[in-house]
Amino acid sequence: MRTAVLGAALLMLGAIAILTGILPPPEALAVADRVWPVLLFVVAITVVTELAADAGLFTVVAERLAQWGLDRAWLLWIFVVLLASASTIFLSLDTTAVLLTPVVVLLARHIGLPPVPFALTTVWLANSASLLLPVSNLTNLLAQRAGGIGGPAEFAALLAGPAIVSIVVPSVILFVVFRRSLLQRYEVRERTQPADRVLLVASAVVVIALLPALVSGIAVWIPAVAGALILVAFFLVRRRTALRFGLVPWQLVLLASGLFVVIEAAHGLGLGTVLSAAAGTGAEPLDLLRVSGLGAVSANAIDNLPAYLALEPVAAQDPVRLAALLIGVNVGPLITPWASLATLLWHQRLTALGVDISWRRYMLLGLVVVPLTTVPATLLLAFLR
Question: Can you give the residue ranges of every domain in the chain?
């Protein structure tokens, strides 16, 4: 509810900016035209993943991974790393943080392993693994629509190296920190039987079909909306009670809309001038480190979405600088709890599951992993460009 209140307050500030002329109506309409496809994709993919989770798809995948783990916690954890990375890359960071987290926590408890290493894996990779494709993160979609980076193929080609670093480095650090918990053995127990196999199969088909569709080059909201409509139709027939208003991430949409308008208005008041001086203009390695570092610091200070919106104008003129900014605002938000909305949603799920996370330890680990990830990822971007 706090998210909704903040979003409403930001929209009110935006309305005042428009009425007072700080943000001229044509510029406000230009912002709306730019972001509506992004927000529509977020809504549609959230509906798809929520219904797929309700059908038991993610639980089935996690339990199958437990079998493939061969009773070894470290091998199961590697499968969770791969699943979390794939989920983030193809279905967005919110899917991993919100839907995969309870699955891996319950899985760990089911086989007698501590849940914290698995829970931290999902939230770290939800953020750090979100570099490879436009659909992986809302910031990526905004960057693609800014015109600095091309379609999914060009996007992936530019960020493939940094994306690999941003998955491998946090994973290695997690393993080192939790090696005692992960060097255990476990016993595989009976698998959960799906309540409705038709819904399970339909969800699997839709999700599998979406993977190539989302990287095909067509506007991502089109296949996402199609997938959502198909699953809604199946659930209307077989489990109508699952179709609730809460499926739509309206609080996130409200917050994002408010941020878009307020940041655009702030640029009209001179925000861009201040940030231009801080971010510089070059594309040499030190210049790119300056951009990614500013993005990471800003994300941990005010959340990664407004940080990206504020910094986009100082990076959008060069695809490499824009990619460096994405490294900062996507990989950087691993220190403060508010650095990413996905992290806050992740923590809400953990609280509901009774899993206690020390924010002090979380922030200390973040202070280690963020520079060890963002610096080599940025330098690799500079080397490979």
Answer: 9-384
